[in-house]
Design brief:
42% of the residues lie in helices and 18% in strands. The protein has 460 residues and is α+β, with helices and mostly antiparallel strands. The chain has two domains: 194 residues, no CATH class; 250 residues, no CATH class. Strands 2-8-3-4-1-5-6-7 form an eight-stranded antiparallel beta sheet, sandwiched between helices. Strands 9, 10, 11, 12, 13 and 14 form a six-stranded antiparallel beta sheet that branches. It is globular and about 80 Å long.
Length: 460
């Protein structure tokens, strides 16, 4: 059994020294509404470790558990708070390490993965960006050295991390430092405890206010706009055709003193007759969530039902600090799942595939006549059918109730017939000039109406 731990490296370009750095850190925490306190009354605690003549300070916490998002959430928050670069390092069973680099705006800029990672992340492991990591090369180190170490083979990944550390100016011991190894008598280790200041406690924030504050700051630079009015919708329009929406919903049934919520979103096209920004969230208007998005991975080999279960909702104490922290946690979780999925649906062809996977549109309803704009509709329909069949097969393998081999065989035949008929119907429309032109005119009328609505809500 290997080691599991996570910590963060904070880039201290000024090399302030431990006392000055801690003073700066505490001052910035105070600006966010936290004051130092004794460990027995703290709400947040950190362990900082320094190294002589090193521009990186290590920070970790006993609250960081294996694979939990709190550490990454803190990394982004601290990077933004100190206006510097931070690198979150997670070691998984001593097999591999994931190093997420966050920029001074608190956004994840790149990821480095090293070690035996295929078991955890599959074969499609991204390579780190030379442009992003090269500025941190230290003392004459080269990108070739960096890449050689990153791609090296190690019995224990801690060895690889210790080799990588001096290449980017980190301490080779501090890069593998974890909370469980903290010794209060070691001179370079400092324990900091914080609680909410009275100023923060005076005004109770709502979940809506927290969502607009946390998500707005990060979504607006990506092209999203908060719509005019009271609804918490952030909307982005791509090429005047694809519409992305992000919002949140609060779940009922939380225990007293707790709040439970989920981040939801959806993708529409401007050709959707039922697109309406005036609809209420309670009507189930937005159907995508982290949980739902992960279900689209059902047919992939790295699908994990335990991961999907953890994405069902977010929950925290009903106090300002907890709500803000959990909302930030929600944002970083959404970056990995919901946002990346929504971002991938960025043109009509991708959107047509998305609709076919969600629920094949019935031609007679003409809800979205995207088949008028997609030349390779037959290929997309066939591929969507293949994926949905594989997803059904995976449900059988997972022993989910109601999924059987007998129904699977019937399903294959039904889908083959359905797809053939759907392709034939679309082909007929494409070849019938009169019907085609009528549908095109209807489509353009819907687009014009929806663009006017988007203008009304100050989205475009």
């Amino acid at each position: 059994m290997g080691n599991f731990f996570t910590s963060t490296q904070i880039f201290d370009n000024e090399m302030l020294g431990s006392k000055q750095f801690i003073d700066k850190f505490c001052k910035k925490m105070a600006e966010e509404g936290y004051e130092t306190c004794n460990s027995d009354e703290c709400e947040i605690s950190y362990i900082l470790k320094f190294a002589d003549n090193c521009k990186w300070v290590t920070i970790t916490s006993e609250a960081y558990e294996q694979g939990n998002e709190k550490s990454k959430m803190d990394t982004g928050r601290i990077a933004k708070m100190l206006k510097t670069t931070c690198i979150n390092t997670e070691v998984i069973d001593s097999d591999c390490a994931v190093m997420d680099l966050y920029d001074k705006n608190g956004r994840k800029a790149d990821t480095l993965i090293m070690g035996q990672a295929d078991e955890y992340f599959g074969d499609d492991i991204p390579q780190p960006s030379e442009k992003i990591w090269k500025p941190f090369l230290f003392n004459g180190s080269t990108w070739e050295q960096f890449s050689e170490i990153q791609n090296g083979e190690y019995v224990f990944i801690e060895e690889g991390l210790s080799k990588l550390a001096p290449i980017i100016g980190m301490d080779d011991c501090n890069i593998t430092f974890a909370a469980e190894y903290a010794d209060e008598f070691e001179k370079n280790i400092y324990f900091l405890s914080f609680r909410q200041s009275n100023a923060l406690k005076e005004k109770k924030i709502t979940l809506k206010e927290a969502f607009i504050d946390v998500f707005g700051k990060s979504l607006e630079p990506l092209g999203y706009k908060k719509i005019k009015g009271s609804k918490p919708y952030f909307v982005r329009v791509i090429d005047n055709e694809i519409i992305h929406i992000i919002s949140f919903i609060q779940h009922k049934g939380a225990l007293r003193g707790e709040v439970k919520f989920d981040i939801i979103g959806d993708v529409f096209s401007v050709y959707n007759q039922h697109f309406d920004l005036n609809k209420k969230l309670e009507d189930g208007y937005l159907l995508l969530s982290n949980f739902r998005v992960y279900s689209y991975k059902l047919h992939e080999k790295d699908y994990d039902s335990d991961i999907q279960r953890k994405l069902s909702h977010f929950k925290c104490k009903d106090d300002n600090a907890s709500i803000i922290n959990e909302m930030k946690n929600a944002f970083y979780t959404c970056e990995r799942w919901l946002f990346s999925f929504v971002n991938s649906i960025n043109n009509i062809k991708n959107y047509f595939m998305f609709l076919m996977l969600r629920c094949p549109p019935l031609l007679e309803h003409k809800i979205e006549m995207l088949y008028l704009k997609v030349d390779n509709y037959a290929e997309i329909i066939a591929e969507a059918s293949r994926i949905k069949n594989e997803m059904y097969r995976k449900c059988i393998e997972l022993n989910r109730e109601g999924y059987t081999e007998e129904d699977y065989e019937k399903r294959l035949k039904r889908r083959e017939v359905f797809c053939s008929e759907l392709i034939a119907d679309i082909k007929e429309i494409h070849e019938n000039k009169e019907i085609y032109n009528k549908y095109k005119a209807d489509e353009e009328a819907v687009k014009e109406k929806n663009l006017e609505m988007l203008k009304k809500y100050n989205v475009i």
